[in-house]
Design goal:
With 129 residues, the protein is α+β, with helices and mostly antiparallel strands. The protein has helices at 3-6, 11-16, 20-36, 72-78, 103-128, and strands at residues 41-45, 48-52, 56-62, 66-70, 87-88, 93-96. It starts with a helix and ends with a helix.
C-alpha cells in the first residue's frame, strides 16, 4: 500500500494533498453535500472522501483530468439521461476539471441517494418487527 495513502485519516487530509485549484473544487463539492445532508457522516472509504447516511451515500475523488463522483450504480442508472454528456461507468461519473461542476445535477443525485438509503433503513426496521 502507498505510504501516503495510509496516512489519510480525514477528508481534510485527502484534500490538502492536491494543488489549490483542485482543493477548491473538492472543498466546494464537500461543502455542497454537507449543506444538503448535514446529518451525513464524513469518512474516508476506499481512500476517498465519502458521505454515509444509513450506509454509503456518495463518494468523490480527484484524478488527473477529472473529479470522480460515485453515487453507486443506482444513482448513475436513475440519472443516466442527465449524465449523458459525461463519461460514466456502473457506479461513477467523471466531471472534467476544465468544465464547471454541475451542482444542480449533483444535488438531484444526492437527494435521490438520501431517499433511497432512508427507504432501505425503514424497510430494515419493518422486517425486524
Amino acid at each position: 500500500m502507498d505510504k501516503n495513502k495510509a496516512t489519510i485519516q480525514s477528508i481534510d487530509d485527502y484534500i490538502i494533498q492536491f494543488p489549490p485549484d483542485i482543493q477548491e473544487k473538492l472543498n466546494s463539492i464537500r461543502n455542497f453535500i454537507k449543506e444538503m445532508v448535514p446529518n451525513a457522516e464524513e469518512k474516508i472509504s476506499y481512500q476517498m472522501p465519502a458521505f454515509f447516511l444509513y450506509g454509503n451515500l456518495v463518494y468523490f475523488a480527484a484524478f488527473k483530468k477529472h473529479i470522480g463522483f460515485f453515487p453507486t450504480s443506482s444513482g448513475i442508472a436513475a440519472f443516466q439521461h442527465e449524465l449523458s454528456e459525461y463519461k460514466t461507468s456502473k457506479g461513477t461519473v467523471q466531471f472534467p476539471l476544465e468544465k464547471p461542476i454541475p451542482y444542480e445535477l449533483i444535488g438531484k443525485i444526492v437527494k435521490f441517494r438520501v431517499a433511497e438509503n432512508l427507504k432501505k433503513a425503514e424497510d430494515k426496521v419493518k422486517k425486524k418487527k
